[in-house]
């Protein structure tokens, strides 16, 4: 029997962090060696011998945490949002000096959400119109969500592969922004409502029909299978992977 993987959680006191702590502690092949809060020294994870860190912190610190992990040869599984192309490029550059280190940045750890994004990329080939509605709790600090951005990118890839142009939209006046944000050519609408956790509707329209792909996370426990998958697989995927689908056998894009 192989030794369990030593894991540290950054952001351990938070809602996602505390759920991850419980899931790691319950897994026979993993060992929680450190739970790091905002007032703790993250080097405690290094001293405890962590081989993987799970970063479930906030956008203001997540990039620095990942760069710290890479500089210390620790694999990182990241659920914190707020990543830009510029910050991803910094991680790729840092990984150039650590070719055996893996980093997974997952916009969503729920298996169903990952599948919804893949289905959206396929469906985008066949529909003239597509829009996204993402719904989260009002304590979420960023909008649109990372999941919605990742979904919009998937739709854009599907449309480009099918040779589709811009979607029809005759709106000429929208002084209040009622049409929402535009991400990769896809309109995205963000709802923040007490009682919600994480939800997404992906709407496709063609002449005479509409198709909706919807995913709902009612509890943060829904994210834990994806977190554990990331922790178990990250060492086998050196370099930067964006999206849990990179670790799943979902066929060709």
From TrEMBL:
Residues 112-241 form the Dihydrodipicolinate reductase C-terminal domain. NAD(+) binds at residues 11-16, 41, 79-81, 106-109. Keywords: Amino-acid biosynthesis, Cytoplasm, Diaminopimelate biosynthesis, Lysine biosynthesis, NAD, NADP, Oxidoreductase. Transmembrane segments: none annotated. Residues 5-109 form the Dihydrodipicolinate reductase N-terminal domain. One of its GO terms (biological process) is diaminopimelate biosynthetic process. It catalyses: (S)-2,3,4,5-tetrahydrodipicolinate + NAD(+) + H2O = (2S,4S)-4-hydroxy-2,3,4,5-tetrahydrodipicolinate + NADH + H(+); (S)-2,3,4,5-tetrahydrodipicolinate + NADP(+) + H2O = (2S,4S)-4-hydroxy-2,3,4,5-tetrahydrodipicolinate + NADPH + H(+). NADP(+) binds at residue 42. Pfam families: DapB_C (PF05173), DapB_N (PF01113). Its main location: cytoplasm. Catalyzes the conversion of 4-hydroxy-tetrahydrodipicolinate (HTPA) to tetrahydrodipicolinate. GO terms for molecular function: 4-hydroxy-tetrahydrodipicolinate reductase; NAD binding; NADP binding; oxidoreductase activity, acting on CH or CH2 groups, NAD or NADP as acceptor. One of its GO terms (cellular component) is cytosol. Pathway: Amino-acid biosynthesis; L-lysine biosynthesis via DAP pathway; (S)-tetrahydrodipicolinate from L-aspartate: step 4/4. It is found in: Cytoplasm. This is 4-hydroxy-tetrahydrodipicolinate reductase. Homotetramer. (S)-2,3,4,5-tetrahydrodipicolinate binds at residues 137, 146-147. Its EC number is 1.17.1.8. It comes from Brachybacterium nesterenkovii. PANTHER family: 4-HYDROXY-TETRAHYDRODIPICOLINATE REDUCTASE 1, CHLOROPLASTIC-RELATED, DIHYDRODIPICOLINATE REDUCTASE. The active site is at residues 136, 140. Belongs to the DapB family.
